Amino acid sequence: MSEDKVKVLYIAGFGRSGSTILGNILGEIEGLFHGGELNFIWEHNLMENRLCGCGAPFDECEVWGSVFERAFGGMERVDAREMTRLQNIGARTRHVPLMLSSRGRRTLASRLGKYMARLGRLYRAIGESTNSRVIVDSSKMPSYGYTLGMAPGVELYVVHLIRDPRAAAYSWLKEPRPDADERSYMNRVNTLKSSLLWDVWNVSSEALWRGSPGRYMRLRYEDFVAEPGRAVEAILDMLGESAGRLPFGPPFVGEREVELRAGHTVAGNPNRFRSGPVRLRPDEEWVSRMRPRDRRLVTLLTLPLLAQYGYPVFIRKAAVG
Fold first, then answer.
1. In this structure, is the dihedral angle defined by the CA atoms of residues 120, 123, 127 and 132, taken in order, positive or negative?
2. What is the reported pLDDT for 228?
3. Residues whose CB is less than 8 angstroms from the CB of residue 125 and which lie 6 or more positions away in sequence, other chains included
4. Is residue 120 part of a domain?
5. DSSP string of 267-321?
6. Fewer CB within 10 Å of terminal CB in the chain, N or C?
7. 138: which strand partners?
8. CA angle 191–308–159, rounded 5-degree value
9. How far apart are CA 21 and CA 274, in angstroms?
10. Spans of the chain below 50 pLDDT
11. How many C-beta neighbours within 10 Å does residue 116 have?
12. Residue 119: exposed, middle, or buried by beta-carbon count in 10 A (0-12, 13-18, 19+)?
């Protein structure tokens, strides 16, 4: 395999923040490939054989078959349980403090040498098999993204995607929705837990990457859906991929409308299976339907970051049509 580095655009942040649609839009641009939440590939796909975004069982998808053949000599040559075990001992949220010091990073590197080497092989194979210059990974978990950036052959760029914590918490409270393969579900998370995780994952993203000028940008979900073309242009500019692109070239068919094809995402929101025309609009159902006590709790627990990210403390309840 080539030892040239592959660019990876990592979407960091907390869940239910729009990473799937952002990744799918980016994946429609020539030279970019959206792989979905690749941190789950060992467990959800190799072990459980969940569906690829194209609709095929993972082990029947020609794209991923080609990737694993190139990287490892075939899917059957990978010990997915061992990869999951290694990921759990060094790429979890609790390992973020180690990532913030040179001594901690050396500890993780010695602990995860085999894991990071295989990550490097996987991502380079994705680029080569799909003829892509940039791999978009919407895994979001800051600790996994930082570990990925330590992998040989990976040149990491980060979009830190943020959504109003009350909107995210409301989404996590909704009834579980079956994934397209009817074997996995969008989990429910209570307001206390989602608020604390929103804090931890966003603070971790800032701490790990804000000192990386030119390779890190912060993007609010609300700004993205208001002006998606501008947001995508800014991302492509950071990647050095903006020449001759957009504002309303493919996949945009209008200022806030895109045309999506079936992709090859390995995990993520069930919306990853959606194709055809998609119109982007703010999801503001939470403004009128979220219980006041839940809204107050989220606001209290996330208050310091609300102001930092430009969100109002008080929301006027309005009808949502």
1. negative
2. 95
3. 1, 67, 68, 70, 71
4. yes
5. SS-GGGG--EEEE-----HHHHHS-HHHHHHHHHHHHHHHHHTT--SS-------
6. C
7. none
8. 85
9. 9
10. 1-2, 179-185, 319-321
11. 23
12. buried
Q: 3-state DSSP call for residue 121? A: helix
- Establish if 295 belongs to a structural domain: no
Task: Provide the CATH number for the domain around residue 179.
Answer: 3.40.50.300
**Torsion-angle region of 216 (φ positive above 0: left; ψ -120 to 50: alpha; else: beta):** beta
Domain annotation covers residue 180 = yes
The Cα–Cα gap between 299 and 165 comes to 8
Q: Where are the beta strands (DSSP E) in 152-245?
A: 154-162, 216-220
Q: Which pLDDT value is given to residue 188?
A: 82
Instruction: Give the other-Cβ count within 10 Å of 28's Cβ.
Output: 17
Residue 16 CA to residue 164 CA, distance in Å, equals 10
Among 281, 310, 280, 313, smallest CA distance to 296 is for: 313
Tell me, what DSSP letter sits at residue 28? T
Q: Is the peptide bond preceding residue 251 cis, with omega within 30 degrees of 0?
A: yes
- Tell which residue, 41, 51, 202, has the closest CA to residue 126: 41
β-bridge partners, 6: 154
Chain Cα centroid distance, residue 40: 11
What total number of domains does the chain contain? Answer: 1
Return the amino acid letter for 285.
E
Q: What pLDDT is stored for residue 184 in this prediction?
A: 47
205, amino acid identity: S
**Single-letter residue type at 196:** L
Quote the domain boundaries for residue 226.
Answer: 6-282
> Are 92 and 66 contacting, i.e. CB atoms less than 8 angstroms apart?
no
**Contact yes or no for 34/24 (Cβ under 8 A):** yes
Tokens 């072990």 label which residue? 47
Residue 317 maps to a domain: no
